[in-house]
Amino acid sequence: MEGSATFILLPKWAAALEAVPPGVVLHVDFKGLSYIDHACLALLMNWKKQHEVTGGALILDWETLRARFHHARPRPRQTCIIRQDAPNADGNSREQRGAA
Fold this sequence. Notes:
The chain is built from 3 helices and 6 strands, in the order βαββαβαββ. It is an alpha/beta fold. The chain has one domain (2-99): Transcription Regulator spoIIAA. Strands 1-3 form a two-stranded parallel sheet. Strands 2-4 form a two-stranded parallel sheet. A hairpin with a 5-residue loop joins strand 5 and strand 6. The termini are close together.
């Protein structure tokens, strides 16, 4: 993920997470993320709990994520990228972008 993650991106994030098959281990990289708001953080935490019930897992650096929530400020007009390395039905990796 890159840029700022704010409530404006919630529908795109929710759709991307919903597309993750049950039982998959999803790794999320926050190196390029400058800021995350409460709504996006809550979405990830709730999705993690729901996904674990299916036998899946969400792997990410929660400490770094919380630091982006508490200490960073949103940068104007950045792009947030959500990537899923698992191929979709046509064998290509999925990527979603949205303006933050």
